[in-house]
Every structure is written in structure tokens, then in C-alpha cells.
Design a protein that fits this description.
With 38 residues, this protein is an all-alpha fold. The protein contains two helices and no strands. The chain is rod-shaped, with a radius of gyration of 13 Å.
Length: 38
């Protein structure tokens, strides 16, 4: 139970981190080794 709560919290934190970046930077962050996706 505690573990799943922790995972959920982690997922929410990751989503918040991702939404902080603009679209272009987020794509670079998600795909550092692939060509730029717009």
C-alpha cells in the first residue's frame, strides 16, 4: 500500500516536472538521442 502511494507520488512529480518545460525542451528531454520532434 505504502509502496503504491510512493509510486503514484513519483509519477505526479514527474508529470509536474515535464509540464514545467516548454514543448520543445520537453521533447529533447524525453528523446535525447533521437532527432528533434516538433
Amino acid at each position: 500500500m505504502y509502496y503504491t502511494m510512493f509510486l503514484e507520488q513519483n509519477r505526479i512529480l514527474m508529470l509536474q516536472k515535464l509540464t514545467k518545460y516548454p514543448k520543445k525542451s520537453r521533447n529533447t528531454f524525453l528523446h535525447p538521442y533521437s532527432p528533434q520532434i516538433t
